[in-house]
Amino acid sequence: MKKIYFLFGIHNHQPIGNFPEIFEKAYQKAYAPFIEVLLRHPLIKLNFHCSGILWEWLKEHHPEFLDRVKKLLKDRRLELLTGGYYEPILPVIPDRDKFGQIAKQTKFLKEEFGITASGVWLAERVWEPHLAKSLAESKIEYTIVDDTHFLSAGIHPEDLTGYFLTEEEGETLRIFPISQRLRYLIPFGIPEEIIEYLRSYSERKEDIGLTIIDDGEKFGIWPETHKHVYGDGWLDKFFTLLEANADWLISMTFSEYLDQFSPRGRIYLPTAAYFEMSEWAIPNIRIGEDFSRVLKNLDVLPGVVKEKLRPFLKGGFWRNFLVKYPEANNIHKKMLYVSEKVNKAVESVKCKVKGKESTLTPYTLHLTPQIQQALDLLYAGQCNCAYWHGVFGGLYLPHLRQAVYRNLIKAEDIVNSLIKKEKIHSDLIDFNCDGKEELIVETSTYNLYFDLAQGGTLFEWDFIPAGVNLVNVLTRRSEVYHKHLQEYLKERPKESETVKTIHELVKVKEEGLENYLFYDWYNRNCLIDHFLHPHTSWDDFRKCQYGEQGDFVNQSYNLEVKKGKNQIKIHFRRRGVVWSGEEKIPLSLEKEIVVDNSALIQVNYRLGNFSTSVIGIWFACEFNLALSEKIDDGGELLVKNSWERIDENQKMKIRFDFPKPVNVWYYPLETVSSSESGFERTYQGTIFLPHWKLNIKPDKTWSTSFSITVEHFK
């Protein structure tokens, strides 16, 4: 019988902006009990990673956890992995930030535990080939990715043992393949059956290493796992069996394995992540549904056939989350925009240090406290969880998105305060990388980002004093799992007594979720110009099931920017059409936004009738406001002078002032999404829609104005 070297690891993480009670729950239900069980089994060794976010929290709230880690290190039973400090998707952040994030985490581990980590954890195991060079230049010797990566590269499943060597421009990196089979068995399989599965490898002609490293949250936080893993004793039993078979099944760290064994060979891996991620990253809903059906059909095939087909199945590519969700793309491009500003400030310090540029990182430079703070805020704004969505809430969770924006807005504000420039200015740049220019206006109070090609709408509205993006909402869109939800609600299968992985689990957190499955045909921004069908009701508009009579919502506008000494006037103009019955009538729309360095925004509208007859139209201006709490279910009201909302959580008040009474619709914008605990309804923000029913004579115009003020309070 040959020896099996069992390379077992755990990765723990909580995102920036997550609620304190979630951190504590994860500690009590997963992190602490896992280490307690591990301490009782002296033959078990563990490869261990925590994000810097979590290390900071543990150090402050549970220093005893760090003491236990130090004991395991002293007993040579633990190997700590470094990584991006704030758990970024490394391939999609600039190289300078890759180096900085890894250096910050490595520095923390060195100062806290006295070790120099040589292995790196990749957030969500997202791999791109250029990483090999970046990681090698960060003094990283090895990383761990899923066997999916290797199968896509043409490696036979039987060869997915030990580790491989890859390179980029001659810079080498060692890579361990994670066994998907073990990922699904641990901790959901019967311990004895897992041992027998491992034993099947011992019949080979040589000693081999098998790698399994996965989320620590599945050992206590995932639904029903705390009772299963600890209450029913799964983990204790599994470790006991590992120790009982230690004559052939040897627990080992990655570095120990590297010291004793050579690589299996050279490999060049394609872009990949774990297999489930490739399902979620498909940007087209129809292709996503087709892929889901293919996988469902695959499940009914015999095991041998399924395993032969598996290497040829590949879904999407992580970066296409930025295509699937424009909101994710906006966050990503905001991050790149702020990174450029912050790193210019870092470079200004670097240039003053002569002759050592090649060895300098942000954590070997003596930065000013302000620049160091801006850099840390930037890195915090790169935390991956709000950039994508799968079985976890991720992008769908407003507090995670807002936390990313808050850090980026604050980082940008610090750097802007250090730069001598005009207090109010504008730029036309291709911000979102769609081949078209967007307008960015920056004042001391607001950052305003306008999309000229999408109705001249406001898609980012940063209120700098509170660090809040007021347009941080999510458009309601169809998801592949919505069909799964509808099928589940129709069939209502009986609950299984077997503990399932979150990839198999279907639960609903409230009844009637199918009544909230509405989909938007345009992006939910601000200053969206609507011409409503005469029969539109409040409920029709709420469901986005109404008639749009104009061609203004998501079409191109002309732009003129007039800059005064202390203010900027942004003038949008479009000459389009409005349908009146069967007649297509030419109509001009002008909207002007006037801003200065105060908290006041003035909005002016003018509509012009270019036809030869009177037109009756119903004009509305839509705002999607990222308030943190739902107050009520909305309705219809007459605003005599002003409408306001106070947001205690975000410490701000927003007020709309109108010169004349105006009819308003408002309602909560809510999405239905999957999460690790089941399907759920999430409040994204409040839609505010002032509207006017008008009759405009030939060659005449109608105009109105209103103002918006946002106040910050402590």
Architecture overview:
Helices cover about 30% and strands about 25% of the residues. With about 725 residues, the protein is α+β, with helices and mostly antiparallel strands. It has 3 domains: about 270 residues, 7-stranded beta/alpha barrel (Alpha-Beta Barrel), CATH 3.20.110.20; about 100 residues, no CATH class; about 230 residues, Beta-galactosidase, Chain A, domain 5, CATH 2.70.98.10. Helix 16 runs parallel beside helix 18 and helix 17 packs antiparallel against helix 18. The radius of gyration is 28 Å and the shape is globular. About 0% of the residues have low confidence.
Keywords:
single chain; 714 residues; alpha+beta; 7-stranded beta/alpha barrel; Beta-galactosidase, Chain A, domain 5; 3 domains; seven-stranded antiparallel beta sheet; 20 helices; 27 strands; 31% helix; 27% strand; globular
Offer a concise description of the structure.
The chain is of the alpha+beta class.
Q: What is the CA-based Rg, rounded?
A: 28 Å
Model regions low in confidence, pLDDT < 50 over at least 5 residues: 355-359
Determine the mean pLDDT. Answer: 94
Tally of separate domains:
3
Helix-strand category: alpha+beta
Kindly state the number of beta strands. 27
Which topology of the largest domain does CATH recognise? 7-stranded beta/alpha barrel
Distance linking N and C termini:
68 Å
CATH class of the largest domain: Alpha Beta
So what's the overall shape?
globular
- Largest beta-sheet characterization: 7 strands, antiparallel
Strand composition percent? 25-35%
Question: What's the CATH architecture name of the largest domain?
Answer: Alpha-Beta Barrel
User: Biggest sheet: strands side by side, in what order?
Assistant: 17-18-19-20-27-24-23
Considering DSSP H and I runs of 4 or more, what fraction of the residues is helical? 25-40%
Number of helices: 20
